């Protein structure tokens, strides 16, 4: 059951919800209901409940009080205005840059401890007032001795302990859901919490963030779409990071963007292109794209450029999942719902015995009404609810490795709705997907795959005849006529070794089978072509053994 620390934290959560007059949350939670009236008897709770404030403000204050994990939850919700009342969305948006800062003296002390030098020696200028205070870290502006403007990001004191405590609470609740709530087991809550734990613990290592930023900057070097700040590696540690300062208009400041005559449609389309480029071309995507982390370079308003910060959370995909997702998108854009259903079965996202025709019909029913409509006319809240109902019917399981991608897609859709509600998401994304699929399956992709794995394949081909000999010997030795068979096998082996042409044929057959298997596994060529290569290899083996 729960540890004492978890129970204590659950009681704190209950008290905070009650103090901020969020009674509905408590009344619907069976775990808290017996203790609700005891909490209401506390003088401090009664005093807090008398304070004025809108429901959105009270929810924001409660999340801020509960700490980093709850703040991040609010940040994710703030981008989904189609799912939230406007007053709540407006308040949750403030979580992105209005978290109470910690004292500058503590930031200075941590910087000096980590970098081993006084701040005055490290920087020509260090601004005491923080530029931004986030749930995990705080940012100060500064200047290097050579005059370059930078920002200094410092972890909050004691943040790791706070996050570990709340993760323990999440694990406990997930275990209860897994054990007692059969309908939600398919959501695999324990695995999802584990995946989230890895993500948020990675975010606490600022050197990992520096490495992520460096990789993303390399991927978009020379790009007209996205600027990633330069990292100053000699001033980076696990709890301190120094990077180039970014100047731009926050993407949430729509009034300022319109005042500067920024091409909003192009900005929205560029956002979609950046996401699919990261997911498909690079398989390395910024997975924390809430509005507080995105700025717009308006030097050329007609061709606006994105600038990103905060690279603590990035995502990658298994190549097979990457291929399946791209194929799903394409099939969806083509309204090929049968292919969508087949891909879900092939990938193992639904049970193997699922009837493809039934799943096809269910997906068509949900998705067909939203085509040919701009974002402003699509209720993604209703679409998601109906997709969840469909998933439950077909026992579809949550894929923890795709959680970050799902979160990023929601952020992208939320940003697109804010920027340019008339955006045709399908028209913008479809050419990108088709180009990627063509490049992945073309001759250049096959050559690249061969070039990268060539030495391993050659070594495997060298070893295959020896492995085949050993397998045949083991089978012969296990038979009742082992003595006679061994003698026959010795004679056959001598004959084969003397026949160079048969050896060459065997090597060709092995190479063909391995190549076909590689093409099937890597999905870099049509399945029929891969099977044709395998059939050629099998035919060569049969000819050799005549």
Task: Please tag this protein with its features.
7% strand, alpha+beta, 4 domains, four-stranded mixed β-sheet, five-stranded antiparallel β-sheet, 24 helices, 546 residues
What does this 3D model show about the protein?
The longest helix is centred in the C-terminal third of the chain and has 35 residues, at 443-477. The N and C termini lie far apart (68 Å). The strands form 3 sheets. Strands 1, 2, 3, 4 and 6 form a 5-stranded antiparallel sheet that branches. The chain has a 4-stranded mixed sheet with strand order 5-10-9-7. Helix 1 runs antiparallel to helix 5. It has helices spanning 4-19, 23-27, 36-40, 43-49, 55-66, 68-78, 86-93, 104-115, 119-122, 159-180, 189-203, 206-219, 254-259, 264-282, 319-333, 337-347, 356-367, 380-393, 403-419, 425-441, 443-477, 482-498, 500-522, 527-544, and strands at 125-126, 132-133, 137-143, 149-155, 226-227, 240-244, 249-250, 285-286, 294-297, 305-308, 314-315. It is α+β, with helices and mostly antiparallel strands and 546 residues long. It folds into 4 domains: 4-96, no CATH class; 159-200; 249-441, no CATH class; 443-544, no CATH class. Helix content is 61%, strand content 7%. A hairpin with a 7-residue loop joins strand 9 and strand 10. The protein is built from 24 helices and 11 strands.
């Amino acid at each position: 059951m729960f540890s004492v620390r978890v129970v204590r934290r659950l009681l704190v959560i209950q008290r905070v919800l009650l103090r901020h007059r969020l009674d509905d949350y408590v009344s619907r939670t069976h775990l808290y209901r017996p203790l609700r009236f005891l909490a209401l008897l506390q003088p401090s709770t009664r005093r807090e409940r008398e304070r004025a404030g809108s429901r959105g403000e009270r929810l924001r204050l409660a999340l801020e009080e509960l700490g980093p994990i709850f703040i991040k939850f609010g940040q994710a919700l703030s981008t989904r205005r189609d799912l939230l009342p406007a007053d709540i969305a407006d308040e949750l948006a403030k979580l992105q840059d209005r978290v109470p800062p910690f004292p500058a003296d503590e930031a200075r002390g941590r910087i000096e401890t980590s970098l081993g030098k006084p701040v005055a020696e490290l920087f020509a200028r260090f601004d005491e007032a923080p530029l931004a205070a986030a749930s995990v870290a705080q940012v100060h502006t500064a200047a290097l001795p050579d005059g370059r403007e930078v920002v200094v990001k410092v972890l909050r004191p004691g943040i790791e302990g706070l996050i570990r405590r709340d993760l323990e609470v999440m694990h406990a609740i997930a275990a209860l859901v897994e054990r007692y709530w059969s309908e939600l087991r398919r959501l695999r809550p324990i695995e999802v919490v584990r995946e989230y734990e890895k993500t948020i613990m990675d975010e606490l290592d600022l050197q990992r963030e520096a490495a992520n930023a460096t990789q993303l900057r390399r991927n978009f070097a020379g790009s007209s779409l996205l600027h990633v700040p330069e990292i100053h590696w000699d001033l980076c540690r696990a709890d301190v990071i120094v990077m180039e300062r970014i100047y731009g208009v926050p993407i949430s400041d729509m009034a300022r963007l319109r005042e500067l005559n920024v091409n909003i449609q192009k900005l929205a389309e560029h956002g979609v292109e950046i996401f699919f480029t990261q997911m498909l071309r690079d398989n390395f995507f910024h997975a924390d794209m809430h509005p507080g982390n995105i700025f717009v370079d308006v030097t050329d308003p007609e061709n606006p450029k994105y600038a990103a910060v905060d690279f603590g959370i990035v995502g990658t995909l298994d190549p097979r999942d990457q291929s399946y997702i791209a194929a799903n998108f394409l099939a969806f854009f083509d309204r090929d719902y049968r292919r969508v259903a087949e891909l879900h079965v092939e990938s193992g996202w639904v049970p193997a015995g699922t009837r493809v025709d039934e799943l096809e019909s269910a997906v068509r029913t949900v998705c067909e009404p939203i085509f040919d409509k701009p974002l402003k006319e699509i209720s993604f809240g209703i679409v998601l609810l109906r997709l969840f109902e469909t998933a439950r019917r077909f026992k579809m399981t949550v894929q923890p490795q795709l959680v970050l991608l799902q979160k990023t897609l929601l952020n992208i859709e939320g940003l697109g709705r804010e920027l340019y509600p008339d955006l045709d998401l399908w028209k913008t994304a479809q050419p990108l997907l088709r180009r990627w699929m063509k490049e992945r399956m073309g001759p250049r992709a096959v050559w690249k795959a061969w070039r990268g794995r060539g030495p391993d394949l050659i070594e495997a081909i060298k070893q295959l005849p020896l492995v085949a000999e050993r397998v045949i010997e083991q089978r012969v030795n296990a038979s009742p006529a082992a003595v006679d068979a061994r003698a026959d096998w010795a004679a056959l082996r001598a004959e084969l070794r003397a026949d160079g042409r048969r050896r060459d044929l065997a090597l060709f057959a092995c190479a063909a089978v391995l190549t076909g298997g590689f093409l099937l596994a890597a999905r870099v060529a049509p399945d029929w072509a891969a099977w044709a290569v395998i059939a050629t290899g099998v035919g060569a083996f049969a000819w050799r053994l005549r």
